[in-house]
Sequence to fold (469 residues):
Amino acid sequence: MTTTTDAERAPQPAGTATPGFWATYTQWWLRTPGSALYLLLVFVLAMLSIGVLAPFFWTGVGLLVLVIGLPLVVLSLMIARGFGIADRFLLLVTGLPRIAEPEWNRDKTDATGFWVTLTRPVRNAHYWVYLIHGMILNPIVSTISFALTVVWLSVGLGGLTYWFWGLFLPRNWNEDGSGGEWGHYVADAVPWLFGGWNSWAVEVVLYLIAGVLFTVTMPWVLGGLARAHHAIAHGMLGRWESDDLAAEVRAEVAARGAAVHAEDVALRRLERDIHDGPQQRLVRLQLDLAALERRAGAGETGAAADLAREAREHAKAALDELRALSSGVAPPLLQDRGLAAAIDAVAAACPLHVNVDVDPVVDRVVGPEVARTVYFIVAELLTNAAKHSAASAVTLKASLRRPFPTAAPTHLDVWVVDNGRGGAFAAGGHGLEGLQQRVAGLRGTLVIDSPIGGPTSVGAHIPLGAGPA
Fold:
């Protein structure tokens, strides 16, 4: 099965104007509330993480000589993973790009058992990096960012409003209406600037200047701190290149297993169909020919002629069944004229009304293995719709998926939708499960949506360039 990834962003067209200073500054300001909220909450999260992780981990390390030590270490690693996921979730409020989930399980697909499951966190480097992040690095960085955030918020917002709330502070007011000490000292220190000013006015002006400076720089400071957290989280809590390789290997192994199983099921089905169809016809034909030989030897020409006609009918039926089976192995129309023509032929042979919409480009970009799988999927789904759905019409669509309009196609999407009674599902040993295995063999996905009452929608999404696993 394929893993879902974010769609690639379309590159900006040449000549696109770079945003001006005020547009950029406005964008920074729009992200400031989210950045401030994150920087305050992540400090609480960091203090909680170090308070929980340190006791669990070091207790587990101290008890490693006993049986209980390893489970405690594993539990601390799992808790560290939870704190790291919470940190990545909180980063979403900053408006910065989402950090991809790491690959938590790098074991082989068939690796099971108690000890394998228990020791999986210990053998995965992500858990240890999450532990270091939650127990050491994040508390240090969060403490620094929290202090700077509180300073910028308090000075910025407090300085702009000091003229109001400063009146309610206890102070010794002088006869000239001035109050406070440090404003008086500042006025005496720079008489050329504040000569004749009372201390209250000096304090209001200085607080206001500080408030303006801190407020103007607040988007850059808080945004920069949030970006620093994001960069650290991206490197420590995000997905690594080795994760993509591990996922690729696991997907390849899973696809290979699904392909082998699907091929085995198809061969068994072919063997059963040959046994129940042409083989029985040929056995009957052999018996008819033996009876014909006896009748002809006895001179019973009428009976011999009747047997000859029956034998010819059995031979014709056996030939038709063999042709049908051979078309299931390698449809001649698909090989000669391509996928679009083969799909049109299958739709035309369906007893239901089929509305076909096939991208004409599919024959140029779809490989033979994908084309053969898609042909079988379409034929099976149309047969199911005709036999079991009680539908009167079917919509068949095959389209190419592109990350952006001018890009090369990456996936082939095939949808078969009928207006029947619904209720279809992939049961073990039945057709839809076989289709799932065929699609999985090409590292694709089969989506089934069939509520009771209909309609039934089945979609096959297959990456292009896929071959037999």
